[in-house]
User: Fold these one by one.
Assistant:
Number 1:
Amino acid sequence: MSLALLADAALVLLVLGLAFWINAASRAFPAVVGYVAFGLLLALAWLRLSAGDVAMTEAAVGSGVTGAVLIAASVRLRSAETEAPPPALPLRLLALLLSGLVTAALAGLVLWTTGPAPSLADQAVQHLPGLGMGNAVTGVLIAYRALDTLLEKVVLLLALMGIWSLAKDRYWGGIPGPSRIQPTNGALILLARLLPPIGIVVAVYILWVGATDPGGAFQGGAILAAMWLLVMLAGLRDAPAISRPWVRLCVTVGPAAFIAVGLTGFALPNGFLSYPDSIAKPLIIAVESVLTLSIAVILGLLVAGPPERQP
Amino acid sequence: MTPATLYGLCSAVLVGAGLYGALVNPQPLRKILALNLLGSGTFLLFGVIARRGAAAGLGGDPVPQAMVITGIVVAFSATALAVALLLRVYQETGRTTLEQPAPKDVV
């Protein structure tokens, strides 16, 4: 067994140990903290699978933003958390049997199919120069499977509409989240003043470098959202009322620009969401830039939750 | 054993652990966590398949990798919506479980 494989095995053991902890912890808050650590370790596993883009997304969204939502929820529910009795033993054994069968089937699939998997890597790389890109994953996301990416943004918007619609009638159009006591945590306030300028530069860099290296609109947007959330957490800025025109504009402009560029595909090249070769790169950069802005605002508002105060 | 196979086995256990947690744990927030475990396991399996499809000088097939990125985002959207629903249930009923209150509470 080589040293690298030993490191892999240690990482797998840590990931699995945390997964069992998330299920077994007696309170929700430690389980959520375990989940954040789990996500970061999983990002390392993605790096080991040569998937840098996925590793960044997992660390930023799967661990970071999801963790923020879950931690906030577990803190709000903590006082009401009751010891609910687990289901009866036969039911638990049945669940164990079912999960064991699913695991065994998947493990069998992994062990018995060892040959090279069918791959679209060749085709994906072949057309990248026409798009002016070097990163195949960004190419797939923004060009070959652009419809998936567009629908993903629509799913984000739908989730935001769903969360907003949970507001009580009298708070509709109001400010998300409960009113917070202004924190006097000096370190947090200092961090929220120092970090955002650096974070914004990093986010723009990640967006720009996504054309050739791991990065892209989503990863950049997630970093921007994190900076915004930091400012809101430190109490430097309150969340905006959701009826503000700029909020509505920011959340819709990205998907709208994507659809607009997609529709021009009908007039110029081959159809919906295809780019003309000569200006493919500028078009893609333009679409990605506005998408980044929309993603950042949508992610921030998804974490902030439904309106709970008058505007 | 190759690293890809090792992570493939890891993903199989994660799916099983997530499924078990979602079925057995009575707290909705813990069910949401377990479903996220199930999702992470599924994505990791995709990553293993992508790794095995490495070609054209790339470390893995970019198509499943891109699908996983989309998947992580959609899983986050679903989680955020589920958490918001749970918090609303708590605001309305003051309870964090989905079990029916005992008959004496109803009166």
Number 2:
Amino acid sequence: MRKYRRFFPLGLGILLVAGVALWGYGQMAARQAAETALTNKYNLAFYNLMNNVQNMEVILSKSLVGQETKQDAQLFMGLWQESLAAQSNLGQIPVTEASVARTIKFLNQVGAYSQSLATQTAGGASKSDDQWQTLNKLYKQAQTLNGELRDVEANLSSGNLTLSELRRDSRYVLRRAGPQLANSNFQVIDRNMQQFPTLIYDGPFSDHIVKKTPVGLEGAQVSGDQARDIALKFIGSRPDTTYIASVAGTVNGRIPVHRVDITPRPAQNGERISMGVSSRGGKVVWMLNSRSPGAAALSVREAGDIAGSFLEDRGFKEMESTYYEVRDNLAVYNYAATQGKVILYPDQIKVTVSLDNGQVVGFDAANYWMAHNERKLPQAKLSVTQAREKLSPKLEDVTPGRLALIPKTVDSEVLTYEFQGRLEKDVFLVYIDALTGEEVKLLKVIKTNSGVLTM
Amino acid sequence: MYLRRVIKASLIIGALLVSGMVIWRGGEALGQSTVLYWGSSGPQVTKVQALLNRWGYYTGPIDGYYSGKTFAAVQDFQRKNGLNPDGVVGDRTWAALGHPVVRQSAYGTYSSGAARGVSDNNSVSLLARVIEGEAADESYTGKVAVGAVIINRTQSGAFPSSIAGVIYQPHAFESVTNGQYTRPVSDESIRAAQAAISGFDPSNGATFFWNPYKPVNAWIWSRQVLTQIGQHIFAR
């Protein structure tokens, strides 16, 4: 009985505390889940807003060089859409109306202006000089707004700020975008292309990959063992290193491949290589090397030469370097196939070179094998000079122009003249149909901090 | 008397529970724990065992449990590499193993200064965070593949068309739903995000991935399975 009396309070205590703890933990977990869900919603709205404003900026700058009314009408429709979407996304971010009123006003003005211009240009009337000036002004303001948003984003991604905090202290950040954007002289204004700038990664035209079957791959099926030998041969040899390769499995899908894992001995920096060798024809489709690069010792040009000879050694003749990008001591080079003097943009290959020792650490030819074949190219009906006349007179430093095959829809390609030109600091690529003279495509070359350049 | 004892017992148990919870939650928040010692377990331990095995320090089973043999092997490795042979895998031992611990990610360095509005850094950092959250323990190829799934989704008509839209789609990614994706990002995840954005796709067009060792919705198995990389099945 004594014993029982001693343990009873303990038992009751345990029960009580356990009950309370369970309930409390449940509450805490629920609150945390709710807060995370809310923060995620805010983040979504914010990142979408960023996308919208970036797209607005790109479209605005395109509208400055677009010459054809038909293209213009499309641009303005897109601009209108983007500004509407931006407004609705901004409305979901927990900041007070007062702090973003001017930003909203700017978005409204862009929306209204683009709507009126869309109507005008769809009716066949091209934009006037005054209108061009206004567009230019709006473009500058969109740049400013973008800069502000990127500062906020930097704070977000470094964890200095969460958007649910904004709810509590909404005087922060977005207000700063206000004053500079407040321009009462605004009268009025533009269309979408992409959600993130693919140009700098893929060179123009990377979206055609949706195509169903790889036309570049022919020949017999290869076995896993053959794939392993092909992979080892592709790697080449490195002094004092043995490569051990094993087939890690197969990958179905667009281009069925054998995945081969390769470990060098001795390993450097945890280096591991993974490669996709097509089951049909036994071509290397991609290669990834996990090694992290050391300090850069090579120039971008030297590394570019390495990329070029790497391709040539592996049987890719008639390739032309188009764009490159440098990031964290890795340089990515884009190459496109050529046929005669025509550059075939759908047939592209990416080669990543590590700038510390010049090793090729990445290779991606999925696009190339999807598209590459001997084309029956039509005869151009326009001369370069005739095509040049279709360009906007505002474009400066225009390149001589060259023939380029670009994808028009998922399964059609069009022969064009490619021109590169400049408007103030912005560089554009304009594609004029070599048969009809129509402006097919207008691209903006984006230079990031990592220094994307056209070559 | 009774009441006093009840209160006393409650306080003691309460204190124990609270401290236990703090420790437990701390462990969860760290996610990919970087310090390993006798008694640790998980994929990080497997990684160390595999590395030490490859270099001939460790001959035991690669089972993810940090026990006596692993301890001895780590000490051995530390001695040969001029480290304090304490048998604990901390920052310096990780570095010597070729997996330096990255506490601060590379983004943020781009934060300001650039006047040009359009950039892709936001896409890269967002993508890198989800890769870290979903595939921190996967190989580089496995990380790129997870990134590629997100990119593939943006290009598929069945999903939102922006990276943010795909990532924040409710319940699309576990690490986003539970907030884990906000932890620091490793260099490898950033490189993987960049590779995925530039078009590398070891998954060959997959729009789904899942860990078959965890309970998943049976519906998911009706997708066309493309391949398995590490612990993830990729399908479309």
